[in-house]
Amino acid sequence: MSTLHNCPCAPGCVLQGALESIGGKWKLPVLCSLMNNGTSRYNELLHNVSGISNTMLSQTLRELERDRLVVRKEYLEVPVRVEYEASDKTRRLQPILMELIRWSMTGTEDAPQAR
C-alpha cells in the first residue's frame, strides 16, 4: 500500500487546501456547469445551477476566481458584459472528478439506503 506525501492525517496537509478550493455546497455545481456548458454569463450560471441564490453565486464565483479555478472576462461594452469559464486548472481536475464518480458508484449495493 502506498502512502501520500503530506497525507490528510498530517499537519499542514496539502490535500486539505485542495479540498477547501472545491468544497462547499456550490463550488462543484458551478464548476461542473462551466465544464459542461462552456463559457457562461452570470445569468446563465444562475439558471444552470439549480437552487443557488444571487448572493451565493456571486460569492462562489469570487472564491473560485481567487483560487484560479474560474477565469472572469469583462468586456468594456455598454452594458458591460462579463463571462466566466473554467480555467486550465479546473480542466485538469475533470478526470479526478470522473474517477471520484466511479469510486462513489462502487459498493453502492452495500450502502445504507438513507443517510
Please explain how this structure is put together.
The chain has 115 residues and is of the alpha+beta class. It has one domain: Winged helix-like DNA-binding domain superfamily/Winged helix DNA-binding domain (Arc Repressor Mutant, subunit A). It has five helices and three strands, in the order ααβααββα. It has helices at residues 14-22, 27-37, 42-48, 54-66, 88-105, and strands at 40-41, 70-75, 81-86. It has a three-stranded antiparallel sheet.
List descriptors:
single chain; 115 residues; alpha+beta; Arc Repressor Mutant, subunit A; three-stranded antiparallel sheet
Summarize the structure.
This protein is α+β, with helices and mostly antiparallel strands and 115 residues long. The protein contains five helices and three strands.
